[in-house]
Amino acid sequence: MSTEYTYPATNPNAEPGHPGNTTPEDDARVVQLREQLHAEGYTDRTDTNTLLRFLRAVKNEADLVGKAKDKFVEVEKWRKEFEVDKLVEEFEYTEKDKVFEYYPQYYHKTDKDGRPLYFERLGKINLKKMKAITDEKRMIQNLVVEYERVADDRLPACSRKAGKLLETCCTVLDLQGVGPKTIWDSMDFLRKINQISSTYYPERLGKLLIINPPTLFNACFNTIKGFLDPVTANKIKICKLPELLDYIPAENLPVDFGGQCTCEDLGGCHRSDAGPWNEEKYTQPSLTDVKL
């Protein structure tokens, strides 16, 4: 038996090292990485596109295959310890609406490239009030479940609709209201969730659009940007609110961010989870077994 993707597996506009734009050396590394992982008993999630993603995540390392294998094994061990598969099947975040009042974050429709849109209002975070509703463990579990839904079913559904492989998301980060106290009070929590996203879900950021930055943020960011990998730095843009329409169709952008969408019949954009992943014609299992 083998497996095939049930959504477009390549992108004609792919960057180097991505499915559809690999070199013979890239392909050989995938084969080598898969053989090494299978030899150690890791047979899940070893499809070509996943392994290419891990190879890209360690692109500046000398021993690409070895470092990619180490990273993959680290992720698999964490998934087992955190019981990720069980969470995806059983977790119910019944307190979501109440927590949302103090940390608004949600997926909603797609950008002009067809990627899932993720909105986060960091300036409204109030960890003390959130912990009066739930505990930190459940907040993190919810975020992990959402990360899992990005891989399956959000990105596959968006790929089907776009007719090309999409592997990343577009994030709109609203910094209005962010100040030293906001960050200080939430620092440990934010560090934990950032560590999970960057370590265990690599290569998922396609574009980061930052709006309403506080005073002096631009100057600080320009300094930080100089230390970032050029590929990562090019994904980040500080925008004025109207500039979001350069990246996001007005009909997909919530009115709160200068767009036209209200999702009035679904309780508002922040509650709707509207997107191809909830449209029947774009949803189905991401992989299917086929006979060789």
TrEMBL record:
SMART domains: SEC14. Transmembrane segments: none annotated. InterPro entries: CRAL-TRIO_dom (IPR001251), CRAL-TRIO_dom_sf (IPR036865), CRAL/TRIO_N_dom_sf (IPR036273), PI/PC_transfer (IPR051026). Residues 1-13 have a biased composition (Polar residues). PROSITE patterns: CRAL_TRIO. Gene3D superfamilies: CRAL-TRIO lipid binding domain (3.40.525.10), N-terminal domain of phosphatidylinositol transfer protein sec14p (1.10.8.20). CDD domains: SEC14. Residues 1-25 are annotated as: Disordered. Residues 95-265 form the CRAL-TRIO domain. PANTHER family: CRAL-TRIO DOMAIN-CONTAINING PROTEIN YKL091C-RELATED. This is Similar to Sec14 cytosolic factor acc. no. Q10137. It comes from Pyronema omphalodes (strain CBS 100304) (Pyronema confluens).
